[in-house]
Amino acid sequence: MPVHTSRRPPSQEPVGAVARVPSAIPSQPRSGGRPPADVPARKRKKRRKDPLWARLTVVFGAILMMTSGIAIVGSKAFISQATGNIAQRNLLGDAGKSDAEGGASLDGPIDMLLLGVDARERWAADDVRADTIIVLHIPASHDQAYLISIPRDTEAQIPAFKKSGYGGGTDKINAAFQAGARNGGGWEGGAQLMAQTIKKMTGISFDGAAIINFGGFKGVIDALGTVRICVSHEVKSHHMSYVDGKPMWNADAKKTGKPMTPVVHKKGCRDMKGWAALDYARQRYGLPNSDYDRQQNQQQLIKAMAKKATENGTLTNPVKLNGLIKAAGKAFVLDTGGVPIIDFIYTMRGVTGNDLTTLRTNGGTFHANASGTKESLSPQTMEMFQAIKNDKLAEFVYANPSVLSTRK
C-alpha cells in the first residue's frame, strides 16, 4: 500500500448540541496524524479530481446514503449547513491513522468504525455497551464499500484507559465501550477505548468513527418513509408488544395494564416502518445463529436505508434532504478526524448503493476460543482484517466467497 504523507487539518471545534453526547469532555487532537496548528495549508496534499465524481454518495455519520447517476442537489454550502447539526467529537484517540498509514489523506483507503448503542433515557451514560461493532472499509479506488461486523461476545484484551481509570483486562469486546465511558469518560471515552481495543486486536487504524444511537435511527427511517427488509427467519420480538394495536416497549406496555400481543416478524420481504425495522434489527433470541443473524440483519438495515435514500427524489429534493440529514443529526455522533464532513461526502461519491457489500465474520456462526468457553475470531476472519489493513479486501473476498453475507 502506498504511503501517503499528507496531513489532516487540525481538529475543528465540535459542531452541534453537546447535550446529545453524554460527555462533557471537549474534543482534543489525536496523537499521530494531527499536525500543529501552524502547518501551512500549501503543504497539504490536494484532493484528486476523480472522474467518478459524476455520482454522489451522501454520508451522515459514517452511514452511506448512496445515489446512482444523479446530480447533487444544491451546493457545498447547502450540504455543509444541512450536516451542521451532526455532533462531532474525538472518538478515536490514539487509534487514528498515523502519517505513515495515510494520515489525513482521503486519497487512499478509508476505514471507519461504526458503533451502535441502544441507549434509552432511563439509562446512565456510563451504563451502555456497544453491541453493534462494524468496520466500514472503502478501498483506495473509492468505488466500493464493505461492512464487516465484529461479534459482541468476542474475547478481547482491552488496554488500560487513563481517562476513565480503567486498568485494562480481558473481557467481551462490547465491554470496552462501557469501560471507557465510566467515571466521566462518556461516549467519547467509550468509543476511544473500543477503537484502541480493535486496533490492538486487528492492527487496523481508522480515518473516522461514528456512534449510532439505534433509537435515533427511527427518525432517519421515518424521514425516508419505510425501508425494504427481508426477514429470513420468523422471530418473536424480545422487546416490543402491541397494545390496542399500537407497538410499545414491553416495559411501557406492562404499565398500561392492558392485554399485550407480541410483535412477530414473519418470514418474507416487506416495507417496514422505522419502529418495525429497528425492532427486527435488534433481535437475536430465537434466531438460529443468534448474534450472527442479528449482525447480518443490522447490515441489511444499513444497506436498505442507503438504497431507499436514492428513491423518490430524496437526495435531489432540498426539503427532503435537509429533513433527512437533520434526523441523522439526532442519531449520530461523528469523528471525521478534523476533515469537514463535506470532504467525506465528495470523496466517496463514486460509491453507489449497489456497491455496498456486507461480509460475515467466523463464517456466520459461533467460533469458540481454545478453552471452548468464550468466543474468538477465526483464522479466516483474522486474514480478512489483515486484508482490510493492506487494502486487499476485494482479492480476499474473491478467494473466500463464503464471507459474503446471505442477506441482500
Automatic annotation (TrEMBL):
Q: Which residues form the Cell envelope-related transcriptional attenuator domain?
A: 129-309
Q: Where is this region: Disordered?
A: 1-48
List the Pfam families: LytR_cpsA_psr
Q: Does the keyword Metal-binding apply?
A: no
Superkingdom in the source lineage? Bacteria
User: What keywords are annotated for this sequence in UniProt?
Assistant: Membrane, Transmembrane, Transmembrane helix
> Protein name, please?
LytR family transcriptional regulator
